[in-house]
Specification:
The chain has 15 helices and 15 strands. The protein has an 8-stranded parallel beta barrel with strand order 3-6-8-11-12-13-14-15, surrounded by 4 helices. A 3-stranded mixed sheet has the order 7-9-10, covered by helices on one side. Strand 4 and strand 5 form a beta hairpin. It is globular, with a radius of gyration of 20 Å. The model has no long low-confidence stretch (mean pLDDT about 95).
Length: about 450
């Protein structure tokens, strides 16, 4: 079934496509690869889902304009070990959700997946030699305040999740769930991302006290890695998502699995044993039937065999990206490590801001170009802010810990306008696009 068409029809749209002239006027072109740049995100977020799909079709990499979205979409094929050299770009889909006050006066947060669909055309597609992969910050419900936005000072952490219930109300459009269920909405998202030349994945947490299990009587209990029912719930929940088309899982606190380097552990609660996580990763690959999945660990260390034998593809934070030659030398050193290699971090989910635009662009440049041959390239990790700068008084980590609306009039449109930097953000987005444009045909 064509779930993109099903999504359109569920939204009350027809499935016939027309060329989008706005997209043609705002496209960046690198060979056959096209995307939207020199923008602020609100320009896309204020458009409709149908507009976003027409933009993606207008930017089609094969040069064909499809009058209806194709029935069969294949993920970009970079082999089974694509994860060791991909650029992972995390999009906080909760932060760009539709925030508004409903008739009952509640501060509603919803439809983050639809917002991410709207933003897809502005994410550079994959290069000739490596993949670009979008990581979604939120999939599962957060423990406190899911489906609502709060003030900028109130904690509403994305790192505390619920299992055993449906998916996040921040993310899924439950107004149309009777027409297209949450899992089908994920399939539609993944098909659209793959059509644009992107891989996709999602963030998960493994710290036991940051996970609640919803029981049949409606009560929540704290997750326990030694409880077989909880263990299998975690495993099956992740397989279910992988079966919708996601191909990567970013594992928060992965460095500390099995009690490793616990002096620097900042999560809350017990972690899975090494053997448990090894089994989970193996079973996700085996039961999904997908040999090409990428498992990304938060933080890496020099003990690469530990991570490779665990089943990870890459890890963050081991290589400092400020110096071009440091990154290049690392790429040369690890050029034959095709099952696991450490990655270069432009910024991470704990980023508190403070870097200048020039520093961010310099780190992107080193992530994209510091190697001897393109086949040597190391994985890189970026946040939404590295492509679309945020407003001056917030940062990536704040938006992971809190869920404020920056609307001045209570409308979603105002939130989207004020969440991001404006004229300077547009200029930065253009410069970042120029770097990607030079890299995509390597």
């Amino acid at each position: 079934m064509n779930f993109v068409n099903k999504l359109l029809q569920s939204l009350g749209e027809n499935i016939d496509m027309q060329p989008n002239m706005w997209a043609i006027d705002h496209q960046f072109v690198s060979g056959m690869r096209k995307w939207i740049a020199n923008i602020v995100p609100a320009e896309l977020l204020k458009q409709s889902v149908k507009d976003a799909i027409e933009i993606l079709i207008t930017l089609s990499q094969d040069g064909i304009f499809y009058t209806q979205f194709p029935n069969k979409i294949e993920t970009p094929n970079y082999g089974d070990n694509w994860g060791v050299s991909a650029n992972y770009i995390e999009i906080n889909n909760r932060a760009i959700a539709q925030m508004e006050i409903n008739e009952g006066g509640e501060h509603i947060c919803r439809n983050g997946l639809l917002s991410t669909i709207k933003l897809l055309p502005a994410i550079p597609p994959s290069a000739k030699s490596w993949a670009n992969c979008v990581i979604l910050s939120q999939i599962f419900p957060n423990i406190y305040g899911d489906g609502f936005y709060k003030s900028a000072q109130e904690e509403n952490s994305i790192y505390g999740i619920k299992l055993g219930t449906d998916y996040s109300k921040n993310i899924i459009d439950y107004d149309i769930a009777d027409k297209i269920c949450p899992l089908e909405q994920f399939v539609a998202f993944n098909d659209l991302a793959h059509f644009h030349g992107l891989k996709t994945g999602f963030r998960t947490v493994i710290s036991a006290d940051q996970i609640k299990v919803v029981q049949s009587d409606g009560s929540d209990v704290t997750f326990d890695w030694n409880n077989d029912e909880h263990f299998n719930l975690f495993l099956n929940s992740h397989i279910e998502l992988i079966n919708t088309g996601f191909e990567a899982i970013f594992i928060d606190s992965a460095k500390h699995i099995g009690g490793y380097d616990m002096a620097n552990y900042t999560g809350v609660g017990a972690l899975p044993s090494y053997e448990q996580m090894q089994y989970i990763i193996h079973e996700i690959r085996s039961r999904s039937g997908k040999t090409h999945l990428s498992f990304v660990g938060e933080k890496s260390s020099g003990d690469f065999a530990r991570y490779e034998n665990l089943g990870l593809s890459t890890g963050t934070g081991f290589i400092e990206p400020n110096d071009f030659h440091t990154v290049r030398d690392s790429a040369v050193n690890y050029k034959y490590s095709k099952n696991y290699s450490p990655g270069v971090e432009v910024s991470n989910d704990n980023d508190l801001g403070g870097r200048s635009y020039e520093q961010r662009l310099h780190r992107i440049n080193n992530s994209l170009f510091a190697y001897e041959y393109p086949s040597d390239k190391l994985a890189s990790f970026m946040q939404m802010e590295d492509l679309f700068p945020l407003r001056y008084d917030t940062n990536t980590h704040h938006l992971m810990m809190a869920n404020p609306s920056y609307s001045t009039d209570g409308t979603p449109q105002s939130h989207w306008e004020n969440l991001f930097a404006k004229d300077d953000g547009r200029e930065y987005n253009k410069k970042a696009a120029e770097l990607f444009a030079h890299s995509l045909n390597l």
